């Protein structure tokens, strides 16, 4: 089961995150999502546990508990959905020439 862990301390390491969940069973992986430019923690991560009962026990026990000084939000990760991108960028150029350069 893939577990979402939010509101993480910026100082929490992946090994500390994994250790917190290992108290409830086997952990395949624990990762903290980092900013691609600065490398700093974005304050959330994911833990993968193969046994659903152990994963649910970890969710029930760790949700709302303090992890390194911050109250963690822990729940089953929802599948990622591909949303259409909005805003600027891409597509044809704007203007009277339709983006062509003369």
For the termini, the CA-CA separation is 56 Å
Mean pLDDT: 88
CATH class: Alpha Beta
Q: H/E series, N to C? A: EHEEHEEE
Strand content: 25-35%
* β-strand number: 6
Rg is 20 Å
Q: What is the count of structural domains?
A: 1
Strand order in space, largest sheet = 2-3-1-6
Helix content: 10-25%
CATH superfamily: RRM (RNA recognition motif) domain
Q: What is the count of helical runs? A: 2
Main sheet properties: 4 strands, antiparallel
What is the global morphology?
globular
Keywords:
102 residues; 4-stranded antiparallel sheet; single chain; Alpha-Beta Plaits; globular
Give your account of this protein's structure.
This protein is of the alpha+beta class and 102 residues long. It has one domain: Alpha-Beta Plaits, CATH 3.30.70. It is built from two helices and six strands, in the order βαββαβββ. A four-stranded antiparallel beta sheet has the order 2-3-1-6, covered by helices on one side. Strands 4-5 form a two-stranded antiparallel sheet. The model has no long low-confidence stretch (mean pLDDT 88).
Sequence-ordered SSE layout with sheet pairings:
Blueprint: E1 2-6, H1 14-22, E2 29-34, E3 41-48, H2 52-62, E4 66-67, E5 70-71, E6 73-76
Antiparallel strand pairs: 1-3, 1-6, 2-3, 4-5
Summarize the model shown:
This protein is of the alpha+beta class. The protein is 20% helix and 26% strand. The mean pLDDT is 88.
């Amino acid at each position: 089961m893939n577990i979402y862990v939010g509101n993480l301390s910026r100082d929490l390491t992946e090994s500390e995150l994994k250790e917190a969940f290992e108290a409830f069973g086997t952990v395949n992986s624990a990762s903290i999502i980092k900013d691609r430019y600065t490398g700093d923690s974005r304050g959330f991560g994911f833990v993968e546990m193969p046994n659903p009962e152990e994963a649910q026990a970890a969710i029930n026990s760790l949700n709302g508990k303090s992890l390194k000084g911050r109250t963690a939000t822990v729940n089953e990760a929802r599948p990622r959905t591909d949303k259409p991108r909005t805003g600027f960028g891409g597509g044809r150029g704007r203007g009277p020439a339709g983006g062509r350069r003369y």
